[in-house]
Design goal:
The chain is α/β, with parallel strands linked by helices and 318 residues long. It is 43% helix and 18% strand.
């Protein structure tokens, strides 16, 4: 029999001996992305119940959808990159706090194209699809900057992730800013030879994936964040201890193969609680990253923000 990790073993003992009081229900919007799947793994293994959390995960199709659900008041929190977390309050959402630092996308987010466009530079003057209201425009702007171009050098078209493959196949766009599992669907399509012309491996540790909760919900549920962080570590430990089972569960959720999901995981760095604690304890790097994101969003015209809100964006009650 495989050994279970110390944290999982301790949790099972505590749960067996001490009934956990269930807290108020907290709803979190979540879109498809391998790094967020630890939350569904935790739900599948009843880790939320084990610590007394009543978490409802609300499935959305895209980053933009998850953000909109929060802005419109339909959920208490949402999964997103740091880009959407920086945007949400400025777009009218409740003040929020980033409570979990899920992962860094170090290759997971990509720009895909097909012949004759084999490099990012070859896309000058061409049509590039992205989710304009969220991460897509930021990725595109950063990628173009690395190659001495700007958004003015391409024709940007707002395309939702679910429509990306059809838009590429029809010739409506020449490239697409995308991410797993949508990017895998495009790369596996046999009707065209799509390939990467850019990935976030070129801007490592810049695209941070997060879980944000409204400040109101945190105030009303003082033990929410510590318990949520505990659950994240339990799911992380389970993935490390039982990779075959965990990967199978998460791959099925994303409707991709176990092999594809493992490939996607290799392009991200999931953060454990120790890494998150260190980042949240000394927030200088996080604030600098959020400031850079906010400045870029101002520059490309997504919003006109003072960026003052980023000073209290990250959870500090560790």
């Amino acid at each position: 029999m495989q050994r279970i990790t110390a944290s999982l073993f301790l949790c099972f003992i505590l749960v067996a001996c001490t009934p956990q009081k269930t807290s108020n229900k907290i709803s979190i919007a979540i879109n498809p992305w391998p790094g967020y799947e630890l939350l569904y793994l935790a739900s599948n293994k009843d880790f939320f119940k084990a610590v007394g959390l009543n978490i409802e995960l609300i499935q959305t199709a895209t980053l933009s959808d998850a953000q909109r659900a929060y802005i419109n008041g339909r959920v208490d929190g949402f999964s997103s990159t740091i880009v959407e977390a920086v945007q949400a309050q400025e777009f009218g959402g409740e003040p929020l706090t980033v409570v979990l630092l899920a992962d860094y996308s170090n290759g997971g987010d990509v720009i895909l194209s097909h012949p004759p466009y084999n490099t990012l530079a070859s896309l000058k003057g061409k049509k590039i699809g992205c989710e304009v209201s969220s991460l897509g425009i930021y990725i595109l702007a950063r990628a173009l900057t690395l190659y001495d171009m700007s958004l003015d050098d391409v024709e940007m078209i707002n395309i939702e992730q679910g429509n990306a493959l059809q838009s590429l196949t029809s010739g409506h766009i020449d490239a697409m800013v995308t991410y797993p599992p949508y990017s895998l669907t495009i790369l596996n399509d046999t009707t065209q030879s799509s390939h990467k012309v850019f990935s976030t491996a070129e801007i490592p540790n810049e695209i941070l994936d997060t879980i944000s909760i409204s400040k109101r919900a945190i105030k009303d549920n003082p033990d929410l964040v510590p318990k949520l962080q505990q659950v994240w570590q339990m799911a992380y430990d389970y993935l490390k201890q039982y990779p075959d089972d965990a990967t199978q569960i998460m791959a099925e959720r994303e409707n991709i193969s176990k092999f594809e999901f493992s490939q996607a995981l290799s392009d991200i760095h999931i953060l454990n609680n120790t890494e998150q604690h260190n980042l949240l304890k000394n927030q200088d790097n996080l604030i600098t990253l959020a400031q850079s994101v906010c400045d870029t969003l101002n520059k490309v015209g997504v919003f006109d923000s003072s960026c003052e809100h980023i000073k209290t964006l990250f959870y500090s009650g560790i």
